[in-house]
Design brief:
Layout (H helix, E strand, L loop, with lengths): L1 H10 L18 E5 L4 H12 L3 E6 L2 H14 L7 E6 L8 H11 L5 E4 L18 H16 L1 H9 L9 E5 L3 H5 L8 H4 L5 H25 L6 H4 L5 E5 L14 H7 L6 H13 L11 E3 L3 E2 L5 H8 L2 H13 L4
Parallel strand pairs: 1-2, 1-4, 2-3, 4-5, 5-6, 6-7
Antiparallel strand pairs: 7-8
Helix pairs in contact: 2-12, 5-9, 5-14, 9-14
């Protein structure tokens, strides 16, 4: 019964709580979206652009990014569109993260939302990252960890700014239904960080659980950060860090998945727009506060009703802290 309570609302979600039609103006807000040239990230970029935000497409392929920008800007019917900018980053190579941040900081004085949306799935262990990391762990967790770490100062400053709406500055980490169905009880087994499994699906699941752990750890970081606000506003003038399972969407991330698995799950796939609405709620809902830091969003914009108790215990019992310490160690030389 508990299992059904966790899974059912993610397979058969309620109606989207926030959509492009109901999103308030995002004029003046700056957003970074990784993995934004296709799938959910591309749909999310379009929504933010139409609402007036300045959106940074953080991606590897410049040609693909500029084609996407052209398609969005020439077909938009928005009366007050924003701006879309491409900025190169390769999450499979940690050497590209600091240059990305340096260029971004030279162009912007604020950052309202960081969507750590990019990811890979079902990639064999042989396709390690440039630094030799297991591909799911390296691309889905370690690179976003470094990116969020290097952007923490501007996020904190934006949250504290006088013209920033309280509770509106956020970091969103991408999770998956597999966290509920398949994650090991430790969430991120420490021994598998250095000696990963050959099982690509297990590695993907661990990486998505790791993103929840990192969302929780960053929430704790931001809670203790100095924001320079008055006592009455201090708690709200901080950065919100949460994780979100956008939905099970048929995107390029599953290109390496077994076709039988795709065929069996096809009836339950949501659209990329549906997935984008989940992340939109996580990034923009006025119902989310700093006190929600570390919580888990499910499709299409609601809180997880029944997170796994063993994973909550793993986070509280030190596994999340161990994972954060490991991520800090492997990214230290790239700062």
């Amino acid at each position: 019964m508990e299992y059904c309570k966790r899974i059912w609302p993610q397979i058969f979600p309620s109606q989207a709580a926030l959509t492009s039609a109901t999103l308030p103006s995002q004029v003046g807000r700056v957003v970074i979206i990784t993995g934004s040239t296709a799938g959910i990230g591309l749909a999310l970029t379009r929504i933010y652009y139409d609402a007036g935000a300045t959106v940074y497409m953080a991606a590897r392929n410049e040609t693909k990014a500029h084609a996407a920008i052209q398609a969005i800007t020439t077909t938009s019917t928005s009366q007050a569109p924003g701006v879309i900018k491409f900025l190169a980053i390769d999450l499979s190579d940690l050497r590209t993260i600091q240059p990305f941040v340096t260029v971004f900081l030279s162009q912007e004085s604020r950052l309202d939302v960081l969507h750590n949306n990019a990811g890979v799935a079902c990639v064999p262990l042989s396709q390690r990252t440039a630094q030799g990391l297991e591909p799911h762990m390296g691309i889905n967790c370690v690179a976003p960890y470094l990116l969020a770490s290097l952007l923490s100062d501007i996020l904190v400053c934006t949250a504290a700014a006088a013209d920033t709406v309280p509770n509106s500055v956020r970091v969103i980490w991408s999770s998956s239904l597999l966290v509920d169905t398949s994650a090991p009880s430790e969430g991120v087994p420490p021994e598998e960080l250095e000696n990963p499994s050959e099982d690509a699906i297990r590695n993907y699941t661990i990486s998505k659980t790791g993103n929840w752990f990192l969302a929780d750890r960053f929430a704790k970081r931001f809670t203790s950060a100095s924001v320079g606000a008055s006592d009455s506003l201090a708690s709200a003038k901080r950065v919100v860090s949460i994780t979100a399972n956008p939905a099970t969407v048929r995107t390029g991330i599953y290109d390496n998945a077994p076709q039988i698995a795709i065929w069996l799950t096809m009836p339950f796939f949501a659209t990329v727009e549906d997935g984008a609405h989940t992340l939109l709620w996580a990034g923009c809902s006025e119902d989310i506060t700093v006190g929600d830091g570390g919580r888990y969003v499910i499709p299409f914009g609601q809180w997880h009703p029944n997170p796994r108790a063993d994973l909550l215990e793993a986070m509280a019992g030190g596994y999340a802290q161990q994972f954060e310490a490991w991520a800090e160690k492997v990214t230290q030389e790239f700062r």
